[in-house]
Automatic annotation (TrEMBL):
Residues annotated as domain Membrane anchor Opy2 N-terminal: 34-67, 77-110
Secretion signal, residue range per the UniProt entry: 1-22
Name listed for the protein in its UniProt record: Membrane anchor Opy2 N-terminal domain-containing protein
InterPro entries given in the database record: Membrane_anchor_Opy2_N
Keywords: Signal
The organism's taxonomic lineage, starting at the top: Eukaryota, Fungi, Dikarya, Basidiomycota, Agaricomycotina
Record has Signal as a keyword: yes
Length: 113
């Protein structure tokens, strides 16, 4: 998967291809003070699970590709009631309330001391 920064993706993709594949006259028209860049489109060789990001060429930096590890996706948590769990423990046991997590609702359990 490719992602582009700086401008909307479609516009930037066309600009990046145009700049990277431009002729020397185009580069000269851009600005004589800009860094010279190779006329190839950058590519990634990312590890599995990484995404390829194409960074657009600027006057100070050539277009290049980087591999990033995407942020973890948000997962849905279980939906629990707001009722506090209760124990029905024997006299010789203690009630322990286990707090709610994303994977399980809070619950009460009886333990022997």
């Amino acid at each position: 998967m490719f992602k582009l920064f700086s401008l909307p993706s479609l516009l930037l993709a066309s600009l990046a291809i145009g700049v990277v594949l431009s002729t020397p006259l185009d580069a000269a028209a851009r600005d004589d003070q800009c860094v010279p860049c190779p006329k190839i489109f950058p590519v990634c060789d990312c590890a599995e699970g990484q995404e390829c990001i194409i960074v657009a060429e600027t006057c100070t930096e050539c277009a290049h590709a980087i591999c990033i590890t995407p942020a973890p996706t948000l997962r849905e948590c279980v939906v629990c009631t707001l009722q506090l769990p209760e124990c029905n423990c024997d006299e010789d046991q203690e009630c322990v309330i286990v707090k709610q997590t994303c994977d399980a609702c809070a619950y009460a359990t009886c333990v022997s001391p």
